[in-house]
Design goal:
Layout (H helix, E strand, L loop, with lengths): L6 E4 L6 H8 L5 E2 L3 H5 L4 H9 L10 H4 L17 H18 L3 E5 L7 H7 L4 E6 L2 H17 L12 H4 L4 H19 L7 E5 H6 L1 H12 L5 H5 L18 H8 L3 H6 L3
Parallel strand pairs: 1-3, 1-4, 2-3, 4-5
Helix pairs in contact: 7-9
């Protein structure tokens, strides 16, 4: 069965991808991966059974699915990285998930896929990419907060595995976070020329300001019907928290980090 235009939400961690994923997952045409899929990446039938028996069905990144066959030193994967194992596993998994859920199209969100667009397109021709755009300073504040929490729990690297991610572990959290943002954003900007009409940008602050208008426009671009039930289920009390970076980041330090690429960072200050 041909898989009809899957949708992949991308962008740096903490840019609003989870918010968009949660909203779009309520669309009646879209199927997604949940916690059981994450725990049992190669057993979609068993995962579906667990869900029917009461396991949580909220949408998940499902890292164990997307990294199951990842063997490269960083997250950069183009069409040449597709293996026979990838072709055997991923389309079959998505097809099975959609059939079990009785959904027409697939939705996924995982920031590390931001550097795997060509790999995804080779596996799922015609897929859509949704790049969630957010003020880099807000992304930085939120990423630092999550990085520190992860370190306290003894966790490892948090963020997209860019080319320099191993060396970057020695950097202060704000510097490594800014470097991830710049690298991922440059890659996504460059990819727009390769995927005209399929790599769409949506701004976090604009979602918060007009969720219904943004969802209507997005659905129209992706060929999704904006059903009354979908619109009725959208949150109505979203508040943009981008201003919070001012309470956590010193202006002098922001200026130092911006100096690494003032043109790029300047374009992502809203």
């Amino acid at each position: 069965m041909a898989i009809d235009r899957p949708i992949f939400i991308v962008g740096p961690h903490r840019s609003g991808t989870t918010l968009l994923y949660g909203m779009l997952s309520k669309h009646p045409a879209l199927g997604y991966l949940n916690r059981a899929n994450h725990r049992f990446p190669g057993l979609p039938g068993f995962a579906h059974l667990l869900t029917r028996l009461g396991a949580p069905d909220d949408p998940q990144e499902a890292q164990h699915v997307w990294d199951k066959l990842w063997t490269l030193p960083d997250d950069r994967m183009d069409a040449s990285a597709v293996t026979d194992s990838h072709r055997a596993f991923y389309p079959a998994l998505v097809e099975r998930v959609l059939r079990l859920r009785k959904r027409a199209r697939f939705l996924a969100k995982y920031p590390r896929l931001s550097l795997r667009l060509d790999w995804l397109d080779a596996l799922f021709p015609g897929c859509y990419f949704l790049h969630v755009v957010r003020d880099w300073r807000a992304v930085l504040r939120s990423t630092i907060e999550r990085k520190l929490k992860r370190e306290k729990r003894g966790g490892g690297w948090f963020g997209v595995c860019i080319l320099t991610w191993r060396e970057d572990q020695a950097l202060p959290p704000d510097a490594s976070s800014a470097r991830i943002f710049a690298y991922v954003t440059r890659e996504l900007e460059a990819a727009r020329a390769r995927y005209p009409g399929r790599l769409l940008r949506i701004h976090y602050d604009q979602i918060c300001a007009d969720v219904e208008g943004q969802m209507k426009a997005l659905c129209a671009e992706m060929g999704l019907e904006c059903t009354p039930s979908f619109l009725a289920g959208l949150p109505r009390d979203l508040k943009c928290a981008d201003y919070k970076w001012r309470d956590h980041l010193k202006a002098e330090r922001v200026a130092e980090l911006r100096a690494a690429d003032p043109e790029l960072f300047g374009r992502y200050e809203f």
